[in-house]
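Sorry, explain these tokens?

___
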Amino acid sequence: MKQGDGILRVGVLGCGRIFNGAHRFAYVRSLGTGHLVGMYDPDSERAESTYQRFRKMLEEKLRDPAASAAERAAAEANLQELTVHPSSAALLEAVDVVDVCTTPQARLGCVLEASAAGVHSMVEKPSARTWLEAERMREAAERHGVLFQLNDDNLWDTRYTQIRRLLEGGAVGDVHTVWLTRGSQPHARTVLKWQATAEIAGGGAVMDYGSHGIATLWYLLGMEPGARPIRVESLEMATRYPQRTLQDEPFTLQVEDDAHTKIVWEHPRTGAWT
């Protein structure tokens, strides 16, 4: 940690939709343990807007009559450190971890820069455009002795938690096969043009929802020291609905929107496989 007070200091790289729509709320809940203290975005106006939004959330915590004295003190301490940085390099000097919320084509560079600076990375999915980019991230983190984490919020979904408890309790016996389908509908209005553009988004369904599928299955089967993947086979990748209406305009997908993968999982102690 950059400071010896036991607080993990986090900086965000990329102040767009995913950070403001999802990530920023977690940092108010983690006050006293992890503080969001810095942000950087090449669009300075977007960074400033995000700064003001998060500052308002901390100020609301200070005025919340239900907040404890410790929570209010943590919010005040976070406010004192909250900064918009002029560059990613300046942000990395001030934090222990970066929350990478850029579009996919920028995530590799963010992780490589952070790793070289001795800063841990947690990355919004898809972490990369291709498997090769993801491998470079992992290798850089290992080389510099830092952590690299692909974020996956599904591990806290109550539906999956209940299923895992049933499996752990033996409610369905030995699990031989699990089929999990993840994705969005062809007419989904939440898909943006950049997500369907190969240069920006890369691997489409495989790198995006595919990571959700793999992480969720691993969680259901126990993760380490439980199941581990020993074989992976790509069955099919296709673009089934190339002509879409995205952001109210006609658009042709440049990435695959359908992918099927088979994974064999093995338990290291029992040798049982799923």
Q: What stands out?
A: Residues 44-63 form the longest helix (20 residues).
